[in-house]
Amino acid sequence: MTKETLEDLSQHYKESVPADLREAKRFDWYLDEVYDDPRIARNSHQRVADMFDYYGTEYDEDAGVVEYLMASEDPLHDGENTFYGREVHESIHEFVNKVKSGARGLGPEKRIKLLLGPVGSGKSHFDWMVRRYFEDYTMDDDGRMYTFRWVNLCDIVRDQDPADDTVVSPMNQDPLVLLPQEQRDQVLERLNEALDAPYTIRNEQSLDPASEFYMDRLLAHYDDDLKAVLDNHVEIIRLVASENKRQCVETFEPKDKKNQDETELTGDVNYSKIAIYGESDPRAFDYSGAFCNANRGLFSGEELLKLQREFLYDFLHASQEQTIKPKNNPRIDIDQVIVGRTNMPEYRDKKGDEKMEAFNDRTKRIDFPYVLEYSEEAEIYRKMLRNADVPDMHIEPHAMEMAGLFGVLTRITDPDGENVTLVQKAKAYNGEIDEADDVDVKKLREEGERTADIAEGMDGVSARFIGDEIAEAIMDATHRDREYLSPLSVFTHFERNLENHGSIPEENVDRYHRYLELVRQEYKERAIEDVRHALAYDVDEIRRQGEKYMDHVMAYIDDATVTDELTGREQEPDETFLRSVEEKLDIPSDRKDDFRQEVSNWVSRRAREGEGFDPQDNDRLRRALERKLWEDKKHNINFSALVSANELDDDERSAWVDALIEQGYSREGATEVLEFAGAEVAKSELEG
């Protein structure tokens, strides 16, 4: 690999920053720019809304949800912060819809977007992602924005402190705010005529008090010649969002309840300037409040509902009126997307408080639940391992999925009735219910939303807890010189630590232990299936049996005959053979026609698409054929070799281990699953 020289690194950095980042432009240049590209003058909601589309979208037809690639693929960080789960992407879709509605001026621009969810659901991380992408977007030409600075002030304003000869717009306002409203409206009318966007550009903001002061003094000096003021005392500069610089992105965290001060939000007097300008002079104000810093971009309120009720009143003006009112100072217009985050206990506490009615009315709640598809939950743990310095550890099949299944079981509500078990419901949410199964996933989801306290997925065990236990299991395996992580070792760590985890209520522990037993049973069935696959699997035989099954199905549907392979004679479809396959999927005789038609339609679709028949490509048919093959071969298997761990050198046992390795097991993991599931297989078959 070629070493990067300092010159290379310097060049890469230079190419990464906007070309005009250090340049100062004239106001008439800016006017020409916005005429050419009106979107430069967008407000915060419009810019954030466009940002989500800029990084790409995909439409999930099944869920009816737009997936935003900045969340589903994370192109900026090579997928390090990818979000998984239908529920999470639905929440993100809802958040973006609120922002887009605000961009059109439909009302949400005057509301706080409140992300509500349990601990570890990803709401804080999503908020962090939005801020990072907004910073990146404003570095790009598509997301560029500008502000202004006052220059040469001491030439005209005689009492101006020489240190303040150049003053950047304290609120980073758009340069169009320098135009009086009547003239500004003329410009905006022309901009909107050329604008290709689903929103209209508006700007009715007043200059911040300090800028208003400078504008009044300068206009008085130049006999109200606005052009002279803008030509001689205003420079246009590129504005790039940066949370580290507290510029257009700000995070506000609640401190000690007894020491909360509204100046943290709205700014305060700059005491070092009072001696120079006097207490009531707008130049003696320090625009360092969180709302000031977030102007033109994003305000993020962490654990928002932990703030005192009186402190939250500042958010009423900030959201509804889009202004802030510092002590002993005039109101200041603001333009920002206000996002709040809160956990369930604080929300429940504030929801029933009548004195919070005004605040609650100015929030748009967006539920951010846990993931409810366990295969997607498993991807969260894999992401965790990808992003860490994991020892050389082989993750055995089912380890992540079974951990995810346990998490999901703690989050979903018990289904009504006796037709569907809790595990079946989790499988249904995971998309594992076959068409022939009598399970209505939509109805299950509606039932879950109706019976849950707030919404399904808003309580239970967090991915953070499960990830921690997986990490513990990995380190434990490392200490014991084991190079593989099996579901059994993960289960052991869950069982040990459920009672000791601070976020799990004591009254839930027994129930969670029962769920863990359900997961153990599910894993046992899957492990047995893997062992059966290793003992009896034959690709050629499955293909041959699959072709035979389809020949007889097509003849059955067409009321035709089949040519016997041995005699060459025409015969009726072999109903006994057909049922021997279908019964392996527990398909009753009164549903056999539906299944046969389903498989026939699948074959026809593939034929139209130019693809040949392969039973491996149809999950249900493959499973049925595998199970039939097992029934046909099991009488030839030496089950005593499965039970005995002392026959590892046996050729037959070694072949089984190799077959399991082909399924994704390590050699040690294959040996473990043979001893675990193999003993169960042997026991059931010997007893049978």
TrEMBL record:
State the UniProt keywords alphabetically: Kinase, Transferase
Native species of this protein?
A: Haloplanus ruber
Q: Which domain of life is it from?
A: Archaea
Recorded GO MF terms: kinase activity
Query: PrkA AAA domain location, by residue?
Result: 25-419
Cross-referenced Pfam families: AAA_PrkA, PrkA
The family database entries (SMART domains) matched by this protein are listed as:
AAA_PrkA
Spell out the protein name for this chain.
PrkA family serine protein kinase
Q: Which PANTHER family match?
A: PROTEIN KINASE PRKA, PROTEIN PRKA
Q: Which residues cross the membrane?
A: none
